[in-house]
Amino acid sequence: MSAKQKMRHVLDVLGDMFPDAHCELNHSNPFELTIAVLLSAQCTDETVNKVTASLFQKYKRPEHYLDVPLEELEQDIRRIGLFRSKASNIQKLCRIIIDKYGGEVPASHERLTELPGVGRKTANVVMSNAFGVPAIAVDTHVERVSKRLSFAKPEDSVLEVEKKLMKLVPREEWTITHHRLIFFGRYHCKAQSPQCPVCPLLDGCKEGKTRMKTGTKTKNNTKKPKIASEG
Fold this sequence. Notes:
This protein is an all-alpha fold. It has twelve helices and no strands. It has two domains: 3-19 and 136-229, Endonuclease Iii, domain 2 (Orthogonal Bundle); 30-130, Endonuclease III, domain 1 (Orthogonal Bundle), CATH 1.10.340.30.
């Protein structure tokens, strides 16, 4: 079976498992999504949604984030990891959006990655979910699953994983595949204690087969994800 044939099988299985996979960060517009994804680095979507429930009521537009002292914004997001640096990046980001883009989030991957706190992953999420441009954002779940299923090597960087997935997955399926890989990694192929005994993709997972043979429950041979620091 070729790599593309294997990927087609994986895509079909994931489609059956998670037909309605979607972005789980609550948002109502591109600006809110950008803020939510920025906050999600090294933090769970669940925690981000709890914080943004009140945050997005208080701050509706970029200028609203600049109307308060930095210390006040820090307190508003203090439940989020790295809240001080994220608060600073949010205010810097809002200033640029106002000064350069008329208060609107730019619908350009290149321009998005120039914003403070916005890396390639964040830009891909915003472009695909807010602007409908196909993209595969590689977060810790996508990276882990891709390496476990041997679509990428253990030593591959986040960018290398993304490029390999883009070659194997049809472009029109990039966005939904991103969501399904996240759901698969978050709810099934977890970092610790993955559900190997009931995994429909076990035949294509060397690590899973080894775990089943040895009875190992928590072994994880993939490298520590780099995505958290990329935004």
